[in-house]
Specification:
- The structure holds two protein chains of two kinds.
- Chain A is an alpha/beta fold.
- Chain A has a domain of about 180 residues: Rossmann fold.
- In chain A, about 35% of the residues lie in helices and about 25% in strands.
- In chain A, a hairpin with a 5-residue loop joins strand 1 and strand 2.
- In chain A, helix 4 packs antiparallel against helix 5.
- By secondary structure, chain B is mainly α.
- Chain B contains 13 helices and no strands.
- The longest helix of chain B is centred in the first third of the chain and has 28 residues.
- Chain B is globular.
- The chains are: A alpha/beta, B mainly alpha.
- At the A-B interface, helix 2, strand 5 and helix 3 of A face helix 1 and helix 5 of B.
- The structure holds adenosine-5'-triphosphate and magnesium ion.
- Adenosine-5'-triphosphate sits at the interface of chains A and B.
């Protein structure tokens, strides 16, 4: 479902050092990244701040073109066929909404129906189903800017799933959620993956997400993949009886050295 | 594309219709503000009989055609030069994950009726000016052609302004100077400006084809700068060229898009 082959992305940053002098520096956000995700998998994507997780997600969705290597998602090259891919992929950025700030949720969902050309009846059905499961009913008339973080996140998830995508990628979907909302979100994602077979890739800093949701974990650091395997295999990298936090801390700090 | 645009515009209009009073006031506001341009022209004519060799109805005609073109382009596509704001707010990323061209999404973003205020004002000016000019039917056909080409040219300028912001995310003002400067320039007969500027807007950034060159034909006026006669018919060519260049620039910019770090 997702194939990443030696993908890299660098940014040239030019910084003013004097009145006219400029200094150019190249940041390798992702380098030589390769992995495959099969249909129906649930994969967690971990890494310290600035490791390259969001950059990877942006390349998978066609927002950023890789500067080297190639990528296929749902059989399509995200850069070349971005709009075709958009119909098969759902994207959630926990940090930022993809909804329209000033529109009520209901109007946002209506816009999405037009953008994705979803059949009216199908759209209605799916929307009813999602609003019920995610408990969004009472906020449908509220403009997005007035929603709380957790309410907005549920709105974003609904928006990402209205067109019934085969792949769902989420960048920190549980950021800032309270314990109850987090549990609800996890339950929802688990069911989605188990019942509909939707492939899910999510980044997170919350190791609870990994423990409770993911069979497979990938760890990225300084733009390179440093671990790819099951959660049990991840635990096995550290001495027995270490907490998952300790395991991950070891992994993050090992790369520093 | 047209269908998507209309559907999206309709959704935005409906959302805006929740505040009918502010909508009406804003529309009237834009109408009044753009009417000030015209008052400026009238004040000039209080003191002289001609401006750059053109009578009041002629100047109103040149102003009217340019502003109909500009306000149509602004109404339909003016938003595309707000790129850097979208990039910074992260909304451009959101547009890229939708199965519709980000160009259309940006153009239609927050589509609102008040944008009509300026268009209405420009049409009114044109309707007042035209009957006073007695344009023969052998020349009047150029009027819709020039309005259409002018709209394409201004749309291309907006697009270039947007494309430029893929590279200069910190300097959106540069692009705005381009578009709004361009519209201000075309409000008066080009004969009030210097030769160098006129050459520039004829052969470099072809704003002279919005209303000046085809307008000379409609008005049957000789060219104060003595440029070749065939230029009066070159508006479609200029529109096509600038349109193609701006489309290429936009695509090149999109390929270089780098999003933001957070
Ligand atoms: N548009 C950009 N311009 C310049 N540098 C960028 C850009 N986007 C990302 N970077 C750099 O690339 C690196 C990886 O960033 P990225 O956002 O992918 O990290 P991340 O793993 O998502 O981190 P976090 O956990 O903090 O969200 C960082 O060093 C960042 O500064
Ligand atoms: Mg990130």
């Amino acid at each position: 479902m997702i194939e990443v082959h030696q993908a890299g992305r660098s940014f040239t940053i030019s910084r003013r050092t004097g009145l006219l002098r400029r200094e150019r520096r190249v940041v390798h956000a992702v380098r030589d990244l390769s992995f495959t995700v099969e249909a129906g998998e649930f994969v967690g994507y971990l890494g310290p701040n600035g490791a390259g997780k969001s950059t990877t997600i942006k390349m998978l969705t066609g927002i950023l073109a890789p500067t080297s290597g190639h990528i296929q998602v749902a059989g399509l090259d995200p850069t070349k066929h971005r709009t075709a891919l958009a119909r098969r992929i759902g994207v959630v950025f926990g940090q930022r909404t993809t909804l329209w700030w000033d529109l009520p949720l209901r109007d946002s969902f209506e816009l999405i129906r037009h953008l994705y050309k979803v059949d009216r009846v199908k759209h209605r059905e799916r929307l009813d189903q999602l609003t019920e499961v995610l408990g969004l009913g009472e906020f449908m008339r509220t403009p997005v800017r007035q929603l709380s973080l957790g309410q907005r996140m549920r709105g974003d998830i609904t928006a990402a799933l209205l067109h019934d995508p085969a792949v769902l990628v989420l960048d920190e979907p549980t950021i800032g959620l309270d314990v109850v909302s987090k549990a609800a979100m996890r339950g929802f994602l688990r069911d989605l993956n188990a019942e509909q077979g939707t492939t899910v890739l999510l980044t997170t800093h919350d190791l609870g997400d990994i423990e409770r949701l993911c069979r497979r974990v990938m760890v990225i650091d300084h733009g390179r993949l440093t671990f790819d395997g099951t959660v049990d295999a991840l635990r096995a990298t550290a001495p027995e009886e270490s907490s998952i936090e300790d395991v991950v801390t070891r992994l993050y700090t090992a790369a520093e050295k | 594309m047209v269908r998507t645009y209309t559907l999206l515009a309709w959704t935005w209009l409906r959302a805006g219709a929740q505040y009918p009073l502010s909508m009406a006031l804003l529309t009237i506001g834009t109408f009044v503000v753009s009417a000030l341009d015209l008052i400026a022209i009238w004040i000039i004519f209080e003191h002289t009989g001609t401006l750059g060799g053109f009578t009041l109805p002629e100047v109103m005609f040149l102003y009217g055609t340019a502003m109909v073109s500009f306000s149509l382009a602004d109404l339909l596509f003016g938003n595309v030069d707000k790129l850097s704001a979208h990039v910074r707010a992260g909304t451009f990323d959101s547009m890229l994950i939708r199965p519709v061209s980000p160009f259309v999404q940006m153009a239609v973003d927050r589509f609102a009726v008040q944008r009509l205020g300026k268009l209405v004002q420009a049409v009114v000016v044109l309707v007042i000016a035209l009957p006073q000019l007695d344009v023969p039917s052998s020349r009047v056909w150029m009027v819709p052609v020039m309005v259409f080409c002018g709209t394409v040219i201004f749309t291309a300028v907006f697009t270039l302004g947007g494309a430029l912001q893929f590279l200069l995310t910190d300097a959106p003002e540069v692009a705005n100077a381009f578009t709004y400067g361009g519209s201000a320039l075309t409000q008066y007969p080009l004969s009030v400006y210097g030769t160098d500027l006129v050459r520039g807007v004829t052969f470099v950034l072809p704003l002279a084809f919005v209303n000046w060159q085809p307008g000379l034909f409609v008005l049957g006026h000789e060219d104060p700068f003595g440029l070749p006669y065939w230029l009066r018919f070159a508006a479609p060519l200029a529109a096509l060229l600038l349109g193609a260049i701006s489309a290429l620039a936009w695509r090149a910019g999109l390929r270089r898009y780098r999003s933001t770090g957070s």
